[in-house]
Sequence to fold (794 residues):
Amino acid sequence: MVVLKDLSTEELFASGHRLCAGCGEGIINRMTLKALRGPTIIVAATGCSEVATTIYPYTSWCLPWVHVAFENAAAVASGIEVAYKAMAKRGAWNKHVDVIAMAGDGGTYDIGIQALSGALERGHDFLYICLDNEAYMNTGIQRSGATPRGADTTTSPAGSVIPGKPEWKKDLISICAAHGIEYVATASPAYWNDYITKVRKGIEVNGPAVIDVLSPCPLGWRHDSALSIQLVRLAVETRYFPVYEVEKGKYKLNFTVPKPKPVEEFLKAQGRFAHLFKPTYRKDVIDEIQKNVDNNWNRIQKLSTQN
Amino acid sequence: MTIVGLTGDEAVAYAVKQSKVDVVAAYPITPQTIMVERFSKYVADGEVQTEYVCVESEHSALSACVGASLTGARVFTATASQGLALMHEMLYIASGLRCPIVMGVANRALSAPINIHGDQSDMMGSRDSGWIQVYVENAQEAYDWTLQAFKLAEDGDVQLPVSVNLDGFILSHSMEGVDVLEDAVVSRFLQLRKPVFRLDPDKPITVGALCLTDYYYEFKRQQVEAMLQVPKVLDNVNREFGSFTGRNYGVLEAFGMEDAEAALLCLGSTAGTAKAVAKKLREQGKKVGVIKLWLYRPFPIEAVVAATKRLKALAVLDKAVSFGAPYGALCSDVISVLHAQHVRPHVFNVVYGLGGRDIEPSDIESVFEEALRIAETGAVKESVMFLGVRE
Amino acid sequence: MTAEEKKKGWKSLPMGAVVLEPGSSLKYKTGDWRAFRPVVDREKCVNCLICWICCPDAAIVRKEKWVEVNYDYCKGCGICAKECPKEAIKMTEEQK
Fold:
């Protein structure tokens, strides 16, 4: 149980970065660094966080941080993890170093899936956090494999014929769980206790761990910057984004959301779904989305009870 | 002196074994596979303490190597052809982040069409990536240059990755007697890496920042400077290696150049054939010579100018094609350097060996004959010859 | 806004574009991004620290019994005001 007063006031993620006002990644970075247990190295993929927080000669990071490319955070993290093992073998290093890879949904679901899969299969001891704002936000809001059905992005625009992205969001958790790793989880920064606990849990796992954390994006989701946290709370309250863990293959819903709000409330609050309401109320798409939310929830719930 | 029968690939793996490499992350591809397989056996038999990562692609291989190198570890990888092409993006990143990685490349033709045999198109396609590039003639050189590569790469004035290139199949899979050093001698030559900067929790730094229009250029200029320092540093490395082994390397090897009027310039194993043919022709009284570059990047301008000063004709052999370019890559470099220095033997380009097309002594002899003809008449018939292709 | 330091040349810049100073972004004040500024009512603040943990810019500063805003960096996103369970933070228009 995380008590806010007990969290360190040390800001290892410093102010002065140039993430948008209200950016979920800024919040997530801060929360992540409150969960550390010792010497840690951050490996970042190309993306909003990487770009906005390390504009030379400025850096917001007060711990070792490295960015190499877009699709290889997991591979770079693998190299760092084994290098420290090698150096420990020859007595050049005697403390354990935690390695945390942080990548967007672009660098994870799509271009980064290969490196992630390889690293999970090889069993490296690292935590992989996907900052999931559900599109390639840094390059201007293009669709990713994590973009939900019906969302308006620049490469899946809501047009007169096609109402936003036709495909459904890729199931990253199942993919990661299929690798047989010890810990996979989703999280929402609206539930900081749950997220920070999970980060620490992921760090403490001896082996790979993956957390997919929903990151609100005022620009890409098109909402008032003040509503960032409220929206990712609503995402959970509508069961749109189930918050659950898969620990050693056992599923567990962390928030059972006994009285779910209709997903329409979540959709209505964001400009990226505005075309589902105006000029025509697209009941067909909204119903489809609700059905998918229900089916997905039932699937996870069933898996949770099968333990 | 210990002679071990080793193929080119095995010789590289042997050198890596002795170099106390911390991390090897590699993906197999013909004809580099023997390097990684042999090394895997060393790991499995406990002959090395190296952390060996069987990554899932070449792009991840170099990515993992960059990560490892940035922690201050000594790192090696190997690839060829399509693998090198797949990690192309990472080549520039490795040099831009100043990682002294050593990579063995068993040069193989690039698709398409797919071909697994030896030519130099793979590394030639990446010659601008900021890597130091060395080409070896035989398994002995593959062994010797791998050891020297670590020392060169890790020098504080250099801090650039090095590729050691050996002709696919011709060298990678041919067994030769290699004079290997004792482990203790290698340890004296190659000491512990001293990184200029590293990812260290006690001294947090940010690596890989975004450099906008106001900073990017300066860091590229730093890389240019590092390349310019290479000949001086390499000279020291070669001298020290020579003191341990009696084998003295440099940026190039000149054979018969003291009185040659016509010469052949090339990279890699073909130099061996060329020297044998040149020897035969010289015994007939023909004034021919061979220039073999060991160092291709940075291009050894002064040494090439000096070596070609008295020539009347020079055949530059390219084992790769640069489509749409006036000459092959190597020939372009040679011509531009000679032009700038006002040294003017007549130069003609010979493209050969593509896709592992065999080159025989008789082929080399015809090149020398053409060069001698040009030396006498001053008339270049064809500026680019395609040797060995069926019309 | 940070004062423009004279930019270094390639000879004196650290090798490889490495940033040697952790947290150097503190020199870059993002406070002038704001159109609205959060104002904390100390009477209403119960020091629950929810605003502190939710601020993307670490612009909420923990004091002994309440929180304060670091206006050097606050971008005026309004999350703190929205999330405060006691409505102790009000977004007010920046003075010109």
